[in-house]
Structures are given as structure tokens and as C-alpha cells.
Amino acid sequence: MKKLPIVFLSLFTFLACGEKPKERIPPVTSPFSNVDTLAINDWWNRDDNAIIDLKVDRDSVVAFGIYTVSNKILKLSAQLYPLYPEETREVRLEIEKDGQWKEIQKRNINDLGWSALFRIENWDDSKNVKYRIRHAKNALFEGLVRKNPENEEEISLAALSCNSNQDRGMRENYVRNINYQDPDLIFFAGDQSYDHTEHTAAWLKFGLQFRETFRNRPAITIPDDHDIGQGNLWGENGKISTSPGSPDGGYTYHPEYVKMVERCQTAHLPDPYDPTPVEQGIGVYYTNLLWGGADFAILEDRKFKSGPEGKIPQQGPRPDHIRNPDYDPASIDLPGLTLLGERQLNFLEDWGSQNTDAPKVVLSQTGFCGGAHIHGSLDNRLHADLDSNGWPQTGRNKALRLIKKANAVHIAGDQHLATIIKQGIDEFRDGPWAFVVPAIVNDYYSRWWWPEDEKAGANPNTNTSLPWTGDYLDGFGNKISMMAYVNPESSSKGGGYGLIRFNKKEKTATFECWPRYVDVTQPNAQQFEGWPMTVSME
Fold first, then answer.
1. Does residue 62 belong to any structural domain of this protein?
2. In this structure, are residues 77 and 48 in contact, taking their beta carbons and an 8 Å threshold?
3. Largest separation between any pair of C-alpha atoms in the chain
4. 140 domain-assigned
5. Tell me: the pLDDT tens digits for 21-34?
6. Interstrand relation of 408-412 and 360-363 (parallel, antiparallel or unpaired)
7. Most exposed residue of 115, 165, 184, 452, measured as fewest CB within 10 angstroms of its CB?
8. How far from each other are the two terminal CA atoms of the chain, in whole angstroms?
9. How far is CA 80 from the centre of its chain?
10. Considering its fold, how many domains does the chain have in total?
């Protein structure tokens, strides 16, 4: 018999033992080259670890998992560190049942962003279930899928925003406080990342900072402008922006980069209300989440919004900043301008007509008015900021009417300046309550509520010592009633987080606002002046 070549015999013997030869997976060639450079292509040749060291021990490549449960559907995203070409892209989800770990699903990691999504239907949300995400032999991340607190009289939501990269440290105070207060759900309203062109590294850093808050509870994360690499975002239905600073509307960076950011941050949210992509194939994620007997609408208040440049009369050195207090607000509220867009207005109309006995909560990136007078430094007074959702006024009022019709309260971030505002539409105080939570880190770009005449408005809040509360017109002529605010001279430079308690029996929401450096485990822990405040949800 003719002898087989030695190479063939070696391979035959290898396969006969039931093992497979390792295949070297070539690095994915990214469609973009100037963003996410630390985590794409031959990422292991990068030496810059100013954000985070991506070259972790291979038993630690599963960085975290993040999940929601709604309508008996569990959606859980696995986030990994970048993988080497020879490493498997397969990740497994296991749950503990009767004291034993059982694998329930496998998925492949996407090399752009290094995440994978598990989706489990008919999830039993009546009990706590331990889960773990596994990669290869030893890498894993463990957590708890909580049971639905739908029978509790009160449920609570922690809300955070604006995780500035001016402080690269861990967030031990937040983790300790939030886990001690033990909310049923946590909401990150945007700007989890400020590293603009390096989202994967910055998202992994955010995960290391906050994963102990969402390891064992559902979490909602939505990206804002800095997450997708822009200082401001007027998405204008997904078009390409070509103007510096993007005031013309649209997205500056490659659509696959934007899609990667949204995939990592929002894939674990409930399925979109209408998944039809916008321009450039960019997806959408606006949806609602049912949890704890409450109904949370999750909006994308940047994606459809019109950009100001070339559409309205410019009132200052920048298309988005109005410095002329004598301008006519009606001159910038023009036909054809959009805030939420018809698709999301239809969603809000539909959402408000369902589950009418449940507490209703709208979650979005920013507030629906101009709630700050001074931006960045005390010498930078803006009459109006078109980045806020006080403009366009007609779009703002359409949204507020639907939120009010649903008897919902509105929770948002972005502004760095914590405020409680009773919105006005046709008259003062005829709109919904809104709580904009403070920045996680507010040491870099602060904002102030500081009326130029330094006088209280009509009908001031008599339950606080804050001097400038009451009824005001913002820079767009919108009616707002300021009830509480946190200027950066206060403790923690105005940094902190919100906690909202929803009493289903009383149909109330209690807004709490906790400074960054307060230890809530201590009996004398104090909230910011003006908080807590309890409001009716009827």
C-alpha cells in the first residue's frame, strides 16, 4: 500500500482524536478607519491605553452583560473585550436551574463593537434567575435576572447622565449608593462616552465603572450626541452632516460606526415600536418597556430633529446659539421643522392609549425646554440654545400634549443642570412634570439657572430656599415653572444622580436628587436643596 504523506497522517490523527485544528480568523476589515481605532483591525498593535487597557487576561474577556425584561421577553447583551483572530467568536448564555447551570442559547460576537445579543421569549419573570455569560473555557460574567416587582406598591428608578471623561476614575460612590437604595430599574440617559471616536474602549470603561449597578437589575441605556462622536446632534432622519459641529443636521461619522454604538447600547432594549431604519440604514430603538406594573416610553429625541443651519435666521456667531434677547421667537418656529418626528408622535399617541392604569414615564435624552441661562462658564450667557428640545416650539408642544394626555412624567439628562420643571403649553403649568437629572461628573462643562434680573418668577416654590423659582418664559417663549435646580456652586459641583419613586396606589412620583459625594448609607445623608418633591401623576 502506498504510504500517505506525513502531513496527511498528522492531520488524520488529529481529527481522529475528536479535536479540531484551530483556524486563524482574519481580522475583520472595518468599513471605517478613523474611528474606534483602538478596537478594530489589528487592535493588539495599539499601545494607547489612556481610556482602558484592552489587552486583558483571556479569562476576563467577558466584560459585562446588560439586560431588560418586558412582556415576558428577556434581551441581554454580552459585551466582550476585543478578541484575537484565533479566539472563538461564540458566547453562551447559561441560567441556574435546580442548582445546575444550563446552557440556553449561543450567539456570535460582532467584531465591530464586540457585543452579542441573546433574546429569550416566554421568560418566566415571576422569580429571580441567576445567569452567566461564558466565552471559551474560563471567561464568564455572572448576574441576576430579577423577578418582576409588579405586585409591589412602589417601584423605583435610578437615572444618570453625562459620564465625563475628565474623570477617568471608578464610580464607587454611585455604585455603593445605588445598590444600597436598590432601585428596580436603572436608566442611563446618554453620554455614557465622551471619547467621541473611540466608543468601544469608552463603553468598556463605562461598563467597568457601573456594571455592579446593572449586573443584578434591568438597565435602559440610550446614546446621546457624544456617544456617536458629536458635540451636538440634530439627526434629521439619519442624513449625512457636512458642516463642522453638524448644525446642518445629520451624522458626522460613518453609518456603521453609528450603528455599532446603537447596537452596543440599545440592542438589549425591548423590540422597537417600528423598526424601519432611517437614512443611511441607521436603525431606530424607540419603544416601551413594561416593568413593575409601570410603562416606560423610551424616546429618541435627537434622531429626527431638524438642524438649525440654513433653516432659520441665525441669531449669533453659531447657528445653534441665540444671544439676541430682542429676537422674535416666532421667527425660528417655522413650518417643516421637526422635533420627535411623526413616527414617534404616533408612537406616543398609541402608547398613551394603552395600559392606562399603569404609571406612565417618558425617558429621553434631554428636556423639552430651555432650562439653563449660562453655559460652560459664568461669562457665557445664552438667550436660547437650539440643542435643547425647547425648539422647535411647535414640535415641543406636540410632544408635551401627548405626554400630558398619557398622565406621564418625563425623565431626562444631557443638560448637566438638575431641574424640576412643570411644563406649560398654552398656559403655565398645564403640561407634564419633568425631572432632568444632574451630570455624573460636572467638573468640566457646567450650566446655571440664573435669571438675568435675579428675581423669582410668579408663583414661586415656597417649599425651598432657592431664590429663582416660579413661572418664567424660556428663550424660545415657552412657558415653564421652575420648581428646583442645582447650580454647580452646590456640593459635588452639581454632579449626582436622580432616584424616582413611583407609588402605584397613590399615583404619585417622588423625585430625589443625590449629590455625587454623599453617602446615602449614613443617617444624615442630605439631598440637594429643593429635593425630594412629590408630584401627582393624574
1. no
2. no
3. 103
4. no
5. 345 566 667 898 89
6. parallel
7. 452
8. 90
9. 19
10. 1
Domain extent for 392 = 154-189+285-363+365-536
Asked if residues 340 and 368 have their Cβ atoms less than 8 Å apart, the reply is no
Of the candidates 307, 443, 445, the one whose C-alpha atom is nearest the C-alpha of residue 375 is 445
DSSP annotation of 110: B
Q: What's the rounded Cα separation, in Å, for the pair 157 and 213?
A: 12
Q: What is the sign of the dihedral through the CA atoms of 487, 491, 497 and 501? A: negative
Beta-carbon contacts of residue 205 (< 8 Å; ≥ 6 apart): 51, 52, 168, 193
Q: CA distances (Å), 508 to each of 121, 249, 528, in order?
A: 32, 38, 20
Tell me which H or E stretch contains 258: helix 255-266
Cell 425647547: give the residue.
Answer: 390
**pTM for this model (two decimals):** 0.94
Q: 359 Cβ partners below 8 Å, 6+ apart?
A: 293, 294, 295, 502, 504, 507, 509, 537
Strands 433-436 and 408-412: parallel
Q: Does 280 fall in a domain? A: no
Q: Which of 228, 309, 214, 298 is nearest to 264 (CA)?
A: 228
Identify which of 264, 239, 363, 249 has the alpha carbon closest to the alpha carbon of residue 65: 264
CATH number at residue 341: 3.30.750.180
Query: Quick one: which H or E segment has residue 259?
Result: helix 255-266
At 63-96, the pLDDT tens digits run 999 999 999 999 999 999 999 999 999 999 999 9
Report residue 74 CA to chain centroid gap.
Answer: 19
Cell of 154: 412602589
Question: What's the pLDDT band for 17 if we cut at 50, 70, 90?
Answer: very low
Write out the DSSP string of 306-336: PP-TTTS---SSSTTEE--TTS-GGGG--TT
Cα separation, 345 vs 395, in Å, equals: 9
Q: What share of the chain is helix, strand, coil (3-state, %, to 5)?
A: 20, 25, 55
Query: Which residue type is seen at 425?
Result: I
Is residue 180 assigned to a domain?
A: yes
Cell, residue 465: 430656599
